[in-house]
Amino acid sequence: MSNSTLAVRPDEQPWTAEEIEQVRAELLGGIERLAAELKTSAVELQEMLAAGVDGAGNDQADIGSTSLERDAEMSLAANQRVLLEQSQKALERLDDGSYGVCENCDQPIGKLRLMAFPRATLCMACKQKEERR
Ligand SMILES: [Zn+2]
Question: How far does the centroid of ligand 1 lie from the alpha carbon of residue 17, in Å?
Answer without folding.
Answer: 25
